[in-house]
Automatic annotation (TrEMBL):
<comment type="similarity">
    <text>Belongs to the uracil-DNA glycosylase (UDG) superfamily. Type 5 (UDGb) family.</text>
</comment>
<dbReference type="GO" id="GO:0004844">
    <property type="term" value="F:uracil DNA N-glycosylase activity"/>
</dbReference>
<dbReference type="GO" id="GO:0006284">
    <property type="term" value="P:base-excision repair"/>
</dbReference>
<dbReference type="GO" id="GO:0046872">
    <property type="term" value="F:metal ion binding"/>
</dbReference>
<keyword id="KW-0227">DNA damage</keyword>
<keyword id="KW-0004">4Fe-4S</keyword>
<keyword id="KW-0408">Iron</keyword>
<keyword id="KW-0479">Metal-binding</keyword>
<keyword id="KW-0378">Hydrolase</keyword>
<dbReference type="GO" id="GO:0051539">
    <property type="term" value="F:4 iron, 4 sulfur cluster binding"/>
</dbReference>
<protein>
    <recommendedName>
        <fullName>Type-5 uracil-DNA glycosylase</fullName>
    </recommendedName>
</protein>
<keyword id="KW-0234">DNA repair</keyword>
<dbReference type="Pfam" id="PF03167">
    <property type="entry name" value="UDG"/>
</dbReference>
<dbReference type="InterPro" id="IPR036895">
    <property type="entry name" value="Uracil-DNA_glycosylase-like_sf"/>
</dbReference>
<keyword id="KW-0411">Iron-sulfur</keyword>
<dbReference type="InterPro" id="IPR005122">
    <property type="entry name" value="Uracil-DNA_glycosylase-like"/>
</dbReference>
<dbReference type="InterPro" id="IPR044147">
    <property type="entry name" value="UdgB-like"/>
</dbReference>
Amino acid sequence: MTPLPHPRIATLFESPVAPGSGWPGDPASPDTPVAKCAEDAARIAAHCSEFEDLDATISVFRACPRLVKWREDIAVTKRAQWRDEPYWGRPVPSFGDPSARMVIIGLAPAAHGANRTGRMFTGDQSGDWLYRALYDADIASQAQSIDAADGLTLHDCRIIAPVHCAPPDNWPRPDEKRTCAIWFDDELARLTALRAVMCLGQIAWTSTLAAARRLGWQVPRPAPRFGHGTRTQLVRPDGSIIVVLGCYHVSRQNTNTARLTRSMLDDAVNTLRDLATT
């Protein structure tokens, strides 16, 4: 499959990418309903019967003016090394197996990573680290994620985030997290086979515990603090147990300073797999 950055393909698209334009993996069409506020999102999410429908509506979400402006401005100004390529410039939907027993939770798309490629943890150093570890654990089909057309798939694993738009300074505001929590809660509730979650960083950890409370799941009190290797358990109303595992985020800051090493990440991913499959 031809990678998306190939100039022949790049010339077919503008930035941001319009729904239904033919971008590889775009779940939306020109007819996908656009939620422009939290109330719209809740109403539309309730009518999404499949994960594909949910992904499509997430990918055209426009409820947070600051994030909409930022993600689209970045898609136009671009980074120098990508100046001749189109940027996705829209909310980035979740990625992976809709029947997953494992979930990896990040924070939000990177401005020149997923906001460029349209796929979670794709096209930057964080993705290089994460997908290599997932490949070594037989979860990802390949060790590198270049763009949305590279053919990568995940087995028994899904990657989701509390926020689907690239935020300024990689830091969404509390009101933006609350608005996007509609999608986050809905997706966690739909993952009925879920057995283990790996939270990349403190925001992923606290967002997961908060979502669990909103969904009526049992959460330990006092709330367990995030830490690399920390574990806690959530109990769904049906009695099923979900183990939550903490892992330092695969950010450049953490990996370049060796706060997170490759062996630490490998251990966390292998633990996630073992928790979900044994």
